[in-house]
Write a structure and sequence with these properties.
InterPro entries: UreE (IPR012406), UreE_C_dom (IPR007864), UreE_N (IPR004029), UreE_N_sf (IPR036118). Helices cover 16% and strands 29% of the residues. It is α+β, with helices and mostly antiparallel strands. Strands 2-6-5-1-4-3 form a 6-stranded mixed β-sheet. It has a 4-stranded antiparallel β-sheet with strand order 8-9-7-10. It starts with a strand and ends in a 58-residue tail after the last strand.
Amino acid sequence: MLTIQKIIPHGHGLAAVLLKRAATVELDWDVRQKSRFDATDSTGRHVGVFLSRGTVVRGGDVLVAEDGTLIVVKAAPQPVLEVRPCAEHGSPFDLVRAAYHLGNRHVPLALAPDRLTLEPDHVLADMLRQMHLIVTETQAPFEPEGGAYSAGSHNHHGHDHPPTTAPTPTRGKAIGVAVVAAPAPHVHGPGCGHGHHHH
């Protein structure tokens, strides 16, 4: 058995030719969020992974065995729910609202400009449909968003931003407040096809 205690996020610093020759291992999200697990790579070798507690393995990361063997991690397709706004009667704001409510429930969530992806949950699926969103069951790799300050988020932003400070309120002076208009109400027509009810 190959013993692995090291991980290189996204294989940074490794030559492309090494990554191309390396074996691979397909892991779903349930396994990749564990710091200790067993798996079998693409060559049939059994590997035992023992990483630091709290480590999250992402697709594209490279596991390094004690003998120097490299194994590239692939995010395995798994059952997921894809959530999209109704193209006919919704708006992109519907996704923002859904992400807010899911975030309040601490639901692992993959973000894209046109969709949200989460693990199957019929209660959440019903809630999202009631919010006038299109929810589809499918199979796809699942890479939920990491916390902004989490060690496992693999944040490779590449540059620094200057610190910003909020203006200090001064007695007797008004403070500007940005006001965001509420979204237009969701109106249904005969072709909406959501299959939900209004009360």
